[in-house]
Amino acid sequence: MREQMHGTDPHADRDSGQRPVDDAAPSSTSPAVPSSTSPIEPPPTRYQMPDARDALPSGLLAGGGDLEPGTILAAYRAGIFPWPDAAGTLYWWSPEPRAILPLDGMRLSRSLRRTQRRGRLTITSDRAFDAVIGACADRDGGTWITPAMEAAYMRLHALGWAHSVEVWDGDGLAGGVYGVAVGGFFGAESMFHRVRDASKIALAALVERLRGRGFDLLDVQLRTPHLASLGVVEVPRVEYLRRLDAALARRSSF
Fold first, then answer.
1. Domain count, the chain
2. 167: domain range?
3. Where do the H-state alpha helices sit in 98-224?
4. Residue 148 belongs to some domain of the structure
5. What is the pTM for the complete model shown?
6. Is residue 204 part of a domain?
7. Per-residue b/e over 26-42, b at no fewer than 16 CB within 10 Å?
8. Residue 179: CATH number of its domain
9. What is the pLDDT of residues 186-234, one digit of tens each?
10. Tens digits of residue pLDDT in 72-127
11. Which strands make up the sheet holding 91-93, listed edge to edge?
């Protein structure tokens, strides 16, 4: 998972440090997807997904294709995710190893637990998906969340597949995380913070929600030192694909 931004060179290391986005107020909010509504299956992709195990050592697997909802969902179901380069060229990735956050393994510091107990911050879900993804994309120096990527995940949200967790304080949106849920799988894409620890609180709230709703795989794609400090671990690709198959077979609902 990428907080704010990772490198956009398709052959570069995807690690990045934390950089809070600008403190501009969210431009809009999106309606929540009703929890009782099942996701709408889009038309199938016109592409055949490559075998995730054929990726290069860098994790690069393929280039081209499109960002139609059916294509993105087929990719997640195959253990693949999109990541365009700085020019907007679309690439598809399957890292070895793969980073996951065990739902019983998130580590919270004492200071973060104190912040949670103070109750100053409010947690919601799917209250402002567009504001969350917009904040994740809003940074100096460019972003891998291109306008096309942003629009694609907005379409997935409208269909009931993409979701967000928001953290609010008295001044507005303080942080958040977004990703895609399929069965018992959740692929966390990016998170941001405008207030200290707000992205960590959003991630902790996401973990709690997934645990309570029958999910069993939280994919964060690549481990960074920041994510490792929160409990993220790496598993071999073959093990990840085994866990993914089991998660996709579950009937979970975000």
1. 1
2. 2-7+96-248
3. 110-118, 129-137, 147-158, 198-212
4. yes
5. 0.84
6. yes
7. beeebeebeeeeebeeb
8. 3.40.630.70
9. 999 999 999 888 999 999 999 999 999 999 999 999 998 988 999 999 9
10. 999 999 999 999 998 889 999 999 999 999 999 898 777 666 666 666 789 999 99
11. 60-63, 91-93, 81-82
